[in-house]
């Protein structure tokens, strides 16, 4: 199986970096990250880089840029849809009114650290940018911590 994946990667050539970027973007985007196995694909890309099928530098850049772009999309969705959307549909995602209030308080106290930490927790990775946008965290601050986490 590993040989087939290596052969496929060789055939993709430089397009492999676009696939890594796209997977990282989708995995970090609001709610899509719950269904897209971007983390698995990124780890696999690291394996392919260690096997010589990909260059490590461009692989890291593609994954980090994809993650940052995906989080920015999630932030913008949260900013536009906002708290009313979370109140209306949050129950379906496990966000009761009380849990939403705790999340907003967490962002108010530790906004930047929350963004960095959420990068390493699967469920939060896809939702934290949306909540940050809905909580009106400044985009400048969000972007700084988003890039650090990515």
Question: What would you note in describing this structure?
Answer:
The structure is a single chain. The chain has one domain (2-149). It has helices at residues 2-12, 15-28, 38-50, 56-89, 97-118, 122-134, 139-149. The chain has 150 residues and is mainly α. 79% of the residues lie in helices and 0% in strands. It is elongated. Helix 4 (56-89) packs across helix 7 (139-149) and helix 5 crosses helix 6 (122-134).
Q: Which key terms come to mind for this protein?
A:
79% helix; 0% strand; 150 residues; mainly alpha; 7 helices
Present the secondary structure layout.
Blueprint: H1 2-12, H2 15-28, H3 38-50, H4 56-89, H5 97-118, H6 122-134, H7 139-149
Helix pairs in contact: 2-3, 2-4, 3-4, 4-6, 4-7, 5-6, 5-7
Distance between the termini: 29 Å
What structural category do the secondary elements indicate? mainly alpha
Regions with little confidence, pLDDT below 50 for 5+ residues: none
Q: Give the overall form.
A: elongated
Number of helical stretches of at least 4 residues: 7
The whole-angstrom Rg is 17 Å
Topology as H/E string?
HHHHHHH
Instruction: Report the biggest beta sheet as strand number plus sense, adding barrel if it closes.
Output: none
Q: Concise description?
A:
Helix content is about 80%, strand content about 0%. The protein has about 150 residues and is an all-alpha fold.
């Amino acid at each position: 199986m590993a040989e087939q994946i290596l052969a496929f990667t060789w055939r993709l050539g430089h397009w492999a970096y676009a696939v890594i970027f796209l997977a990282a973007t989708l995995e970090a985007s609001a709610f899509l990250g719950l269904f897209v196995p971007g983390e698995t694909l990124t780890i696999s890309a690291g394996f392919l880089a260690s096997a010589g099928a990909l260059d490590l530098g461009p692989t890291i850049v593609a994954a980090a840029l994809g993650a940052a772009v995906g989080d920015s999309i999630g932030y913008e969705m949260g900013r536009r849809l906002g708290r009313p959307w979370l109140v209306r549909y949050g129950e379906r995602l496990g966000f009761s009114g009380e849990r939403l209030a705790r999340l907003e308080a967490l962002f108010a106290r530790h906004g930047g650290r929350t963004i960095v930490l959420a990068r390493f927790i699967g469920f939060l990775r896809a939702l934290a940018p949306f909540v940050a946008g809905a909580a009106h965290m400044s985009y400048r601050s969000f972007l700084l911590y988003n890039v650090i986490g990515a």
